[in-house]
Amino acid sequence: MTAVIRGIGVCVPPNIVTNDDISKTLDTSDLWIRERTGIERRYMVDGEISTMDLAIKAGLRAIESAQTNKIDMVIVATTSPERLCPAVAPEVADKLGLKGVAAYDITSACAGFVYGMATAKGFVESGIADTVLLIGAEAFTKFVNKDDRTTWPIFGDGAGAMVIGKGEPDELGAIGQFDLGADGSLSDALCTHAGGARQRVKDSLGQHAQSQAYYLSMNGRVVYENAVSQMTQSSLKAVRQNDLTIEELDWMIGHQANIRILQTVAYELDLPECKVASNIADHGNTLTASIPLLLNDYAHSNQLKPGQKLLITAFGAGFSWGSTVVTWPDLRTYPKEWN
Ligand code: COA
């Protein structure tokens, strides 16, 4: 069995910007841009259209192209995320009528679609997913400075999508092996400096932006209720898929967001509370770091032993969630302290 391309769809925003349009506001020319880059015009978002709108349209067309609605994972590769948090893929999936399927974003800039194909192939061939909708979507011009003649002329917006499902290696559309690589030593050569953790958004006076819009907002009760129900359902599915029972589990390694959420999930699963691993007291919610930190803490203190069966389950913004079962290996562990 191998991963095979089953459908394709694309979408661009309606607004076309020519080199002459750009030359009206920047010290450049149609000739310079054409001679140096080959670009004559580009589609650019304006007004309300954003990454998600393009992703949805491309995704819909790819689904139509594949003539299937049996998608069980949506991956969006984007360099222009709709919001810093959460990933856009869950919302795209919802809008495509795929609410509830696995959905998340990947970031690998212009290599993102190829990385996404490799990721989708891995999911399909390992049996984690049957059919993946992979979307590459960008409203990147929103992140490019209109006053910078060295960058503004060279980017455009749009989205493309592919449905990737199971097939045979000799089938047309079969996806072959990949070579992937990266060189982080040159990351400054092509980057967006601010807006991430290293340099937060600043206002025109150079002060950290004061608006709440630049910071996380949360409806705690809605998150709490969904965390409990989705982690419970997802855990049950994962345990079942791995031919196990709740009684056979040694530990629940749950994302450390709130001890009461973990206790309630354990209660719903009929899992004794003594099997709920937790280090939230020492760490709070460390997002993507929470599960590995918990595993390391428990393994390093010998509470977690080789051969023990772990339910790993997480829930977060998106909303998105995931669970699996792992038999803990015999690993050397190290202290978590900086020094
Ligand atoms: N119009 C007119 N002049 C421009 C210009 C523009 N849009 N952009 C840059 N220039 C000027 C520069 O200021 C420079 O002037 P100077 O000699 O007085 O300093 C001159 O043109 C040459 O600049 P340079 O950067 O050497 O031009 P180039 O031939 O390398 O072409 C790119 C510039 C950006 C087109 C080219 O380097 C390129 O395509 N790089 C790869 C970019 C890319 O692919 N990015 C995405 C990766 S996923």
From TrEMBL:
One of its GO terms (molecular function) is 3-oxoacyl-[acyl-carrier-protein] synthase activity. The active site is at C110, H255, N285. It comes from the Bacteria. Residues 104-184 form the Beta-ketoacyl-[acyl-carrier-protein] synthase III N-terminal domain. This is Beta-ketoacyl-[acyl-carrier-protein] synthase III. It is an enzyme of class 2 (transferase). Keywords: Acyltransferase, Cytoplasm, Fatty acid biosynthesis, Fatty acid metabolism, Lipid biosynthesis, Lipid metabolism, Multifunctional enzyme, Transferase. Residues 240-328 form the Beta-ketoacyl-[acyl-carrier-protein] synthase III C-terminal domain. The last Arg residue of the ACP-binding site is essential for the weak association between ACP/AcpP and FabH. Its EC number is 2.3.1.180. Residues 256-260 are annotated as: ACP-binding. Belongs to the thiolase-like superfamily. FabH family. Pathway: Lipid metabolism; fatty acid biosynthesis. The gene is fabH. It holds the Pfam family ACP_syn_III. GO terms for cellular component: cytoplasm. It catalyses: malonyl-[ACP] + acetyl-CoA + H(+) = 3-oxobutanoyl-[ACP] + CO2 + CoA. One of its GO terms (biological process) is secondary metabolite biosynthetic process.
